[in-house]
């Protein structure tokens, strides 16, 4: 079993739930309080991934970046050296969904070999029929480096571990 | 106000007694209690009527009791007795207190008696029942009595309760415990609320013991409980009374600090003592260069630095490529992944926000420092305690540089898999730890360093000195050779010519009086210079020195003598007013030229007059002898002798050889003897005339016969002739 350390970043507009997703993934906790991330926060989670060849211990260094606002873009240097990225959008705010492409472009510009997974967060706040419609509109991206789109919920934990696992699997 | 009968009925209904057989007594008690309380309520208004009512109450009560008479058991009897006693107590009031006491005593006695009887007659179960049944009554009684007359009841019951409780405990300790347990916390709470001091007093003696016991049971419990508050407690204590805290901690902290300081001061001492060492000079120089005080440098060197951890981190991703941490017993190592990530984030932040194009060199926090060395794809973070010195940083840079040089490609390819990291990186980084570990050793091995330094300085002095001395020896040699050769030339030997060798040049300084001598000297020196590959620097000056007459005459005399020693040379020189006249005989013509030349070279001689003959003069005078006679007729030959003397006087450089010629008459032997005698006689005659005998030699032995050419007198064939010659010297 080999131990591999990888850096992944969470990108997205402010208040889409990047920190909450990480907290759910790393600590399996959730809080309704909104605390804006300042600068960057780094978390670590070790997971095991089995491929056809080997069982890998993946040390994920998860970089939780400050969400961008109209006045403050994401600092590109924090993205450097990341193997993968989870771009997070808020299903209850259409503007954040529309920004996914912009974030993907920024990430791929800095890490041309990087892999992206898209988390459409706060799925628990959206009724099923609306969710289906939104997934239809924002669920497909014509880019081989974008793995897929997951409706996630940090509150209920839906798809959170899965999206991290899928991304880890594709970057090793 | 309620009537007494009402009271009785209502209280009978309200009563919540547990057992039915004590109901009546309960009721009675209730009545009594209620009436008592109501009485006190109205006592201010209607005192007299109350008393009346009370008295009117009694028949009813009696009735009640009587109704149940047939059921009265032992306990009831006791209860009744007690009741009676109470009622009377309530009636009699304070004035009858004494009496009550007596009755009380009687009652107790009675009760005891009954109890005894009961224990004897009844089974233990009955007794238990009896006691159980008694408790509520006692409680009620107590209740009542407490309200009514505390003192008496207390006195009455105190002894019994003790016994009761004791017995109860003996019988059913668990039940009692359960019973008390329920109220214990609240009881304590209540007690604490009302009189905290008492509780405190009660608990105080056992507090320490109980903590001890708890520590024994669970070692960590107390420390865990207190731990979180310790900080606050200390803080508060410091706020409240700083001095006490200082006093308390002084022995500990004082010792720790003093121990540390002793080490530091020793180190400082050592450094100060070594002020005059190379190290000291180096420090002084550094202090001057860096613009800090020497003391600061000394302190920095004394305190030193300790490497805690070294991380090689991927510059972009912040992933750890290699890490080395000092193993601290009992302490967890640093979380390298997180630390590397945050360091990278801080670096990125600093690079983006503060000044782009510059690098973060170090992060200081208190006594700690993170020293950063950045390369293309990775950077090195050295976490150390204390101030790193220049040497250490130089070493870090060197090792980091080597790693980059050797493994830069592998590092740039790093993608998080630690197995791809080249293994030699780790030992290389460990060198930094070792280097730091050796710091102390190194300082102790400074004498060797000092020796090396000394050797170096000595070499620095000795090698050039050796070269210089070797060169000077060679130069001296050349100088000597030159001097000897210059001396060997006779005409130059009298002049002081000083050869010297400097910077590849052979310099000859001096003065000679003539161009010729100068050329001679130049020719000699040039030869030597060529042989030693030196450039010849001619500094010989020709000067027309007024030659000292003695030197000149000496020189002339010397040359004259020199030449006179040669065969065929007999000269006399005379120097007068810069002209030299040479007189005498030089038989060889060539020699005559060379002698002339030699003299003319003598400085100071402007003109040379030579007056020499290349042939010796002859003496015509012959001394004739009679036949067979060897005697000289001095008188006849006086003129001849005179002229011979004159000749010798004229040519003092010439000597005379006497030759005997015979007439050939007679035997050869006779003639030979005769010749020799004649020679001898003639010589004597000349000596007698004052001629220096050394100037005369006789050569009479050879047999010479006068060869007669023509007819002549035979007398003229016997003679001695004279032949001048240049005497060999």
Which helices and strands, and how do they pair?
The complex is a heterodimer of chains A (172) and B (729).
Chain A: E1 2-12, H1 18-27, E2 40-50, E3 55-65, E4 84-90, H2 94-98, H3 100-110, E5 115-121, H4 128-138, E6 146-151, H5 160-171
Parallel strand pairs in A: 1-3, 1-4, 4-5, 5-6
Antiparallel strand pairs in A: 2-3
Chain B: H1 4-14, H2 23-42, H3 47-67, H4 74-92, H5 97-121, H6 124-171, H7 173-194, H8 196-217, H9 219-240, H10 242-273, H11 278-290, H12 294-303, E1 305-314, E2 320-325, H13 336-354, E3 362-365, E4 368-374, E5 378-386, H14 390-412, H15 425-444, H16 446-488, E6 497-502, E7 505-512, H17 515-531, E8 535-542, H18 549-564, E9 569-576, E10 579-586, H19 589-601, E11 607-613, E12 622-624, H20 634-650, E13 655-661, H21 668-688, E14 696-698, E15 719-725
Parallel strand pairs in B: 7-8, 10-11, 13-14
Antiparallel strand pairs in B: 1-2, 1-5, 3-4, 4-5, 6-7, 9-10, 12-15, 13-15
Helix pairs in contact in B: 1-2, 2-3, 2-4, 2-6, 4-5, 4-6, 5-6, 6-7, 7-8, 8-9, 9-10, 10-12, 14-15, 16-17
Structure description:
By secondary structure, chain A is α/β, with parallel strands linked by helices. Chain A has a single domain, classed as 3-Layer(aba) Sandwich (Rossmann fold), CATH 3.40.50. Chain A is built from 5 helices and 6 strands; from the N terminus they run E-H-E-E-E-H-H-E-H-E-H. A 6-stranded mixed β-sheet of chain A has the order 2-3-1-4-5-6, with helices on both faces. In chain A, helix 4 links the parallel strand 5 and strand 6. The radius of gyration of chain A is 15 Å and the shape is globular. The model of chain A has no long low-confidence stretch (mean pLDDT 89). Chain B is α+β, with helices and mostly antiparallel strands. Chain B has 6 domains: 170 residues; 67 residues, no CATH class; 112 residues, Beta-Lactamase; 76 residues, Alpha-Beta Plaits (2-Layer Sandwich), CATH 3.30.70; 65 residues, GMP Synthetase, Chain A, domain 3, CATH 3.30.300.130; 104 residues, OmpA-like domain (60s Ribosomal Protein L30, Chain: A, 2-Layer Sandwich). In chain B, 62% of the residues lie in helices and 14% in strands. Chain B has a 5-stranded antiparallel β-sheet, with helices on both faces. In chain B, strands 12-15-13-14 form a 4-stranded mixed β-sheet. The longest helix of chain B has 48 residues. The chains are: A alpha/beta (172), B alpha+beta (729). At the A-B interface, strand 1, strand 2 and strand 3 of A face helix 13 of B.
């Amino acid at each position: 079993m080999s131990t591999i350390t990888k850096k992944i970043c969470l990108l997205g507009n402010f208040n889409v739930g990047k920190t909450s997703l990480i907290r759910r993934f790393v600590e399996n906790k959730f809080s309704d309080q909104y605390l804006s991330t300042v600068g960057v926060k780094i978390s670590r989670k070790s997971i095991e991934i089995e491929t056809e060849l080997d069982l890998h211990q993946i040390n994920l260094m998860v970089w939780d970046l400050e969400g961008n606002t109209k006045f403050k873009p994401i600092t590109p240097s924090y993205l450097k050296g990341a193997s993968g990225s989870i771009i997070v959008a808020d299903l209850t705010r259409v503007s954040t969904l529309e920004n996914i492409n912009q974030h993907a472009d920024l990430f791929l510009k800095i890490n041309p070999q990087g892999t992206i997974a898209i988390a459409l967060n706060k799925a628990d706040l959206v009724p099923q029929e609306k969710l289906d419609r939104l997934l239809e509109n924002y669920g497909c991206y014509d880019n081989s480096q974008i793995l897929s789109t997951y409706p996630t919920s940090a509150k209920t934990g839906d798809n959170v571990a899965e999206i991290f696992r899928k991304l880890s699997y594709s970057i090793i | 106000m309620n009537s007494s009968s009402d009271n009785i009925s209502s209280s009978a209904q309200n009563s919540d007694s547990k057992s039915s057989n004590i109901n009546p007594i309960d009721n009675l008690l209730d009545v009594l209690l209620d009436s008592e309380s109501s009485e006190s309520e109205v006592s201010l208004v209607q005192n007299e009527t109350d008393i009346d009512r009370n008295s009117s109450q009694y028949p009813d009560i009696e009735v009640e009791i009587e109704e149940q008479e047939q059921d009265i058991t032992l306990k009831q009897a006791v209860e009744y007795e007690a009741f009676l006693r109470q009622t009377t107590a309530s009636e009699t009031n304070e004035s009858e207190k004494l009496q009550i006491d007596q009755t009380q005593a009687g009652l107790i006695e009675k009760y005891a008696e009954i109890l005894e009887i009961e224990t004897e007659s009844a089974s233990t179960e009955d007794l238990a029942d009896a006691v159980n049944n008694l408790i509520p009554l006692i409680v009620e009684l107590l209740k009542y009595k407490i309200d009514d007359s505390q003192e008496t009841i207390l006195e009455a019951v105190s002894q019994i309760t003790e016994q009761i409780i004791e017995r109860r405990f003996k019988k059913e300790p668990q039940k009692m415990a359960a019973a008390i347990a329920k109220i214990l916390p609240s009881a304590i709470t209540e007690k604490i609320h009302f009189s905290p001091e008492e509780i405190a007093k009660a608990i105080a003696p056992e507090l320490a013991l109980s903590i001890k016991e708890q520590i024994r049971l669970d070692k960590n419990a107390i420390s865990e409980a207190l731990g979180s508050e310790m900080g606050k407690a200390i803080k508060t204590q410091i706020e409240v009374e700083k001095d006490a805290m200082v006093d308390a901690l002084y022995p500990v902290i004082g010792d720790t600090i003093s121990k540390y300081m002793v080490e530091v001061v020793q180190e400082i001492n050592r450094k100060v003592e070594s002020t005059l060492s190379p190290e000291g000079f180096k420090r002084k120089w550094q202090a001057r260069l860096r613009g800090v005080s020497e003391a600061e440098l000394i302190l920095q060197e004394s305190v030193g630095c300790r490497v805690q951890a070294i991380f090689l981190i991927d510059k972009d991703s912040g992933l750890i490529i290699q890490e080395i941490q000092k193993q601290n017993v009992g302490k967890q190592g640093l979380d390298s992944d997180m630390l590397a990530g945050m360091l990278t984030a801080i670096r990125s932040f600093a690079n983006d926000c503060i000044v782009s194009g510059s690098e973060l060199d170090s992060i200081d926090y208190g006594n700690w420092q993170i020293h950063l060395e950045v390369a293309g794809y990775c950077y090195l973070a050295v976490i150390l305690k204390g101030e790193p010195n220049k040497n250490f940083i130089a070493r870090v840079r060197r090792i980091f540089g080597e790693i980059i040089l050797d493994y830069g490609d592998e590092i740039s390819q790093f993608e998080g898999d630690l197995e791809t990291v080249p293994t030699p990186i780790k030992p290389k980084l460990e060198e930094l730890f070792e280097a730091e570990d050796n710091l102390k050793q190194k300082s102790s091995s400074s004498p060797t360093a000092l020796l090396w330094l000394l050797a170096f300085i000595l070499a620095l002095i000795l090698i050039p000195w050796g070269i210089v001395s070797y060169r000077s020896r060679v130069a001296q040699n050349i100088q000597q050779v030159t001097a000897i050769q210059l001396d060997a030339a006779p005409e130059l030997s009298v002049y002081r010519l000083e050869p010297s060798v400097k910077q590849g040049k052979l310099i000859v300084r001096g003065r000679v009086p003539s161009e010729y001598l100068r050329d001679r000297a130049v020719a000699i020196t040039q030869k030597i210079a060529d042989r030693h590959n030196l450039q010849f620097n001619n500094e010989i000056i020709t000067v027309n020195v007024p030659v000292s007459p003695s030197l000149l005459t000496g020189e002339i005399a010397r040359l004259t003598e020199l030449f006179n020693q040669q065969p065929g040379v007999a000269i006399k020189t005379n120097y007068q007013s810069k002209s030299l006249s040479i007189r005498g005989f030089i038989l060889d013509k060539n020699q005559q030229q060379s002698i002339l030349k030699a003299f003319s070279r003598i400085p100071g001689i402007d003109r040379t007059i030579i007056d020499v003959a290349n042939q010796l003069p002859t003496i015509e005078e012959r001394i004739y002898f009679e036949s067979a006679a060897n005697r000289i007729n001095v008188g006849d030959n006086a003129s001849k002798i005179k002229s011979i003397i004159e000749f010798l006087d004229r040519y003092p450089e010439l000597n005379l050889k006497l030759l005997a010629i015979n007439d050939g008459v007679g035997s050869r032997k006779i003639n030979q003897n005769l010749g020799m005698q004649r020679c001898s006689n003639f010589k004597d005659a000349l000596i007698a005339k004052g001629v220096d005998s050394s100037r005369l030699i006789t050569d009479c032995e050879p047999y010479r016969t006068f060869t007669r050419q023509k007819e002549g007198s035979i007398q003229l064939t016997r003679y001695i002739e004279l032949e001048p010659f240049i005497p060999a010297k």
